[in-house]
Design a protein that fits this description.
single chain, about 130 residues, mainly beta, ten-stranded parallel β-sheet
């Protein structure tokens, strides 16, 4: 029986949606992704997502880490670190492991920190 050669998976793949490019539809990726254009759809990435100053996402964003300098309109779920730069404009709820927000960022929505439920101490119930 012959063995079928499959391409090797490389988790270090970096994908780019350039300035002036608009994608309508969902994107799934095992590597990292940088968006300087527009995505209308959901984004599910196992690596890091960078949204540049000219980048815009209208849809749900799910990833491991993210740096956002552009616009996101929709729910954001980041397993580890979400970094919102001063030029970022976020309109939607976020669920994160860790959150860094630079002064000047505009965020409208609710924030839920992952893993905080078991560490919460309610006064009078220690």
């Amino acid at each position: 029986m012959a063995k079928i050669n499959e391409p090797e998976f490389n988790a270090n793949n970096i994908n780019l949606v350039g300035f002036g490019t608009e994608i309508n539809g969902d994107i799934k990726s095992s590597g990292d992704l940088r968006i300087d254009g527009t995505l209308v759809g959901n984004l599910n990435v196992k690596g890091k997502v960078v949204v540049g100053e000219t980048g815009k996402i209208k849809g749900e964003l799910v990833c491991k880490n993210s740096d956002i300098s552009g616009v996101v309109e929709g729910k954001i779920t980041v397993d580890e670190l979400l970094s919102l730069k001063s030029s970022a404009r976020i309109n939607g709820d976020i669920t994160v492991g860790k959150l860094a927000i630079e002064p000047g960022c505009k965020f409208t929505g609710y924030c839920n920190m992952l893993g905080m439920e078991s560490k919460e101490v309610i006064p009078g119930q220690e």
